Amino acid sequence: MTMGASPIQAAAEPLEFQWDPDSIPPFPAIALKALRLMAGTDTSLFELCNLIRADPAFSTAVLRIANSPLIAFSKSVTSVIQASMLLGFQRLRRVVITVGLKSYLTDSFTPVMKSCWRHSVGCAIIAERSANWSALDKEFAYTAGILHDIGRVALATTMPEPYARVIERGADQPQDLLQSEQEFCGIDHCQAGRSLVTAWNLPEAFLEITACHHSTDPHSPGAARLLPPSCELAAALGFSVIDCRSSRSYAEILAEFPERARTRFPGDAKDLAAEIANEIKLIESA
């Protein structure tokens, strides 16, 4: 993808804002560290634990989640070290990245940002479940779901008025949304996400996640191929930022998942939506 002006943009008024990933507020350093630590080892668990312990806000959030029904340990967790040992590296990293996104949105938790948050978490939950049922890396799938829409978050944060026009216009298909973003913002959220992954020096695996989550590629490796249907399904269940007027049915979207996963999802979309809503509520209250 290139980031040049689209034909629509060229005919529109000059854009007041030019995309610059270096001007985007930095993602929390602890969450970035967790994202860069892809492999779970004793050393990386120790590094991550020390980072969390040095930050009161993250320490508190991690302890709240570790003691919530979401994790359901049999005894109270009273320290970050204890939480780290009980959770293990992969689950601890997942908690830190989720807390990181939540804290990233806290200062501007507008209705748009709340929608971005709920969509990202909804996508992450669906991706994690489908990866688990398909014997794929469920922790990577969850992390990818949390991160996939970071480009949209950045656009809505740095260009609230242009992005409000994108939302007001709506879309028939996801590609219509990308075209509107190009027109009003000069860049779409997939391109913006890709540039942030590069600017933040995140693992290369997240380039495809942020750039291609609206285009299904059956040849995508491992859990990455679960992101496009997980993103679409989250939106179809009501966890959307911008509703697509001609969205596909629940059954049509489920058909995009591996067979072992799609047969495990609830038969009724309302049941799955309620399950995800309850899990999001637990995370938000932690």
Task: Provide a descriptive summary of the structure in words.
With 286 residues, the protein is an all-alpha fold. The protein has helices at residues 7-11, 29-36, 42-53, 56-66, 80-106, 111-133, 138-147, 150-158, 160-169, 174-185, 189-199, 205-211, 227-236, 250-254, 259-262, 269-285. The protein folds into two domains: 25-101, no CATH class; 108-286, Hypothetical protein af1432 (Orthogonal Bundle). It has 16 helices and no strands. The chain starts with 6 loop residues before the first helix and ends with a helix.
CATH topology of the largest domain: Hypothetical protein af1432
Low-confidence stretches: 1-12
**Tally of separate domains:** 2
Which range does the strand content fall in? under 5%
Report the sheet with the most strands, covering strand number, pairing sense and barrel closure: none
CATH class of the largest domain: Mainly Alpha
Give the N-terminus to C-terminus distance in angstroms. 39 Å
**What is the CATH architecture term of the largest domain?**
Orthogonal Bundle
The chain-level mean pLDDT equals 86
Helix content, binned percent: 55-70%
Shape descriptor: globular
Total DSSP E strands: 0
The topology string of helices and strands comes to: HHHHHHHHHHHHHHHH
Q: Give the C-alpha Rg.
A: 19 Å
Q: Helix/strand/pairing class, anyone?
A: mainly alpha
CATH homologous superfamily of the largest domain, by name? Hypothetical protein af1432
- Count of DSSP H/I helices: 16
